[in-house]
Amino acid sequence: MSISVPHTKEAWEALCREANVVLPYAEDTSILKTPVTVQGRVIPNRIAYQAMEGCDGTPGGLPDTLTRRRYLRFARGGAGIIWFEATAVMKEGRANPRQLYMDEYNFMDFAPLVEEIKETCLRENGYEPTVIVQLTHSGRYSKPEGVPAPLIAYNNPLFEGDAPIDASRIVSDAYLDRLTEKLSFAAALAERAGFDGCDIKCCHRYLNSELLSAYNRPGRYGGCYENRTRLLREAVQGALAGCSSRFIVSTRMNIYDGFPYPYGFSVNEGDGITPDYTEAKHLAADLAGYGVHLLNFTMGNPYFNPHVNRPFASGTYDPPEHPMVGVHRMLTGIAEVAGAVPDVKVISSGISLLGGTSPNVTAAMIEAGAFAFAGYGRETLAYPGCARDICETGGLDAKKLCLTCGKCTEIMRTPGGTPGCPIRDGEVYMPIYKKQVLGK
Question: Which of 44, 134, 248, 350 could lock 51 by a disulfide, CB 3.0 to 4.6 Å apart?
């Protein structure tokens, strides 16, 4: 299926009719430029730029030329929150040889870029953004030397078929204990480097997220709810204990995997892949009880069901559903789980497919109390100034919109690929796309 990204209300309504879904729409998007206070920090607007990994750091794990370029474009773009990309806390947990990596020896090398992001946004827009770093372990997607070196919570036949990963690659409880300590420690390092908060990453089937569905794993990190959520809960508690009261400790968390039980989190045990958000609500409430004031929700797996977490207008395969069904699931699911933690500010996801109507749909949902922030992902690579345009004009320029074509992801999937938008940022990324994907 291939559709056009909507720019007008009429095009959006037509897509909703095609998909038989109902979402609200507001003509007035001014709520998106209103401030929100989180832990004493005044966030100047309700637009968050999601973590978009560039795979363009140095071999030692530090920001490089393209990394800096991307974040300064984001800074000029005016988002209230910039969710800094996945940064590994253990070397063997890097997703590629150029993924960012933070430890006790290099953490202050991140400080100049964080400071420059804030200074640039202040100069261009009159305010500083809140910058939150995503701390991660890539788990089954680890490739620290450029070749697969998976570290898994359990074998999953949905992914591996009849060729399971060697059992020696299943991490031990002791290893997960160390990872908990590393995540908590990295949060304190991030605060010292100038970040305003950290995300203990728990989404998209990386190691922390995979544990949420470790129903059949033995030991302290598998089986019951308390065990499967242990790594996230204890790492968050450790980060909160080791950081100041103004430092935001959060998580970008899968509230639904889209895989059947016992291999998917938040699915109905006896009904295929129907969402059941009971445990996601429980986990969100637990985190709120520890003192978490900001949560970032998402769904799916970018490797096996990308139509769930980033519905696309065109791509490398035909999705099993209309893409607006995925947008509807994402937004209404996030709203449902957010309803379980009314005192927590929640960031939405999956809105790039809405194109020029994304401010209208998210403004309507924010006005209704569904969540607090519109979270833009792929859109930021194509259109880094989208937040500024929304706040200044109330809408988006159709000529700058992300087409949700997936070319940025195609680059990422190639060895050594440094993803960006080859369509809207073609001077830099079209040559990369042609070399990496087309072999030209």
Answer: 134
- 377 with 421, same domain: the answer is no
The one-letter amino acid at 423: I
Cis status of the peptide bond prior to 323, with omega within 30 of 0: no
Same domain, 410 and 393: no
> Quick check: 382 pLDDT over 80?
yes
- When divided into structural domains, the chain yields a total of 2
If one counts every other C-beta atom within 10 angstroms of the C-beta of residue 279, the result is: 17
Q: What's the Cα-to-Cα distance from 412 to each of 55, 77, 149, 319, 384, rounded to whole Å? A: 7, 23, 17, 20, 19
Contacts of 128 (CB under 8 A, 6+ apart): 118, 121, 122
The separation between CA 320 and the C-alpha centre of its own chain, rounded to angstroms, equals: 23
423 and 276 share one domain:
no
**The one-letter amino acid at 352:** S
- Above 90 in pLDDT, residue 270? no
pLDDT digit string (tens) for 54-97?
Answer: 999 999 999 999 999 999 999 999 999 999 999 999 999 999 99
pLDDT grade for 2, boundaries at 50, 70 and 90: confident
Measured distance CA(276)–CA(24) in Å, rounded: 23
Predicted local distance difference test score (pLDDT) of residue 272: 87
For tokens 């500083």, the residue is 128
Tokens 């978009």, located at residue: 52
Does 2 fall in a domain?
A: no
Q: 98-134: buried (b, 16+ CB within 10 Å) or exposed (e) per residue?
A: bbbbbeeebbeebeebbeebbebbeeebebbbbbbbb
Cα within 13 Å of Cα(281), Cβ side: 13
251/125 same-domain check:
yes
CATH number of the CATH domain containing 175: 3.20.20.70
Q: Is 300 helix (H, G, I), strand (E, B) or coil?
A: coil
pLDDT, one tens digit per residue, over 314-352 is 988 999 999 999 999 999 999 999 999 999 999 999 999
Q: Mean pLDDT throughout 21-50?
A: 98
Kindly state whether residues 394 and 412 are assigned to the same domain. no
Q: Look at residues 78, 81, 24, 8 and name the one whose alpha carbon lies nearest to residue 369.
A: 24
Residues 414 and 276 in one domain: no
CA 404 from centroid of its chain's CA atoms: 16
State mean pLDDT over 243-267.
Answer: 97
Query: Same domain for 211 and 71?
Result: yes
Which domain covers residue 417, as residue numbers? 406-440
| 327 & 426 share domain | no
Residue among 51, 49, 56, 103 at smallest CA distance from 76: 49
The pLDDT assigned to 130 comes to 98
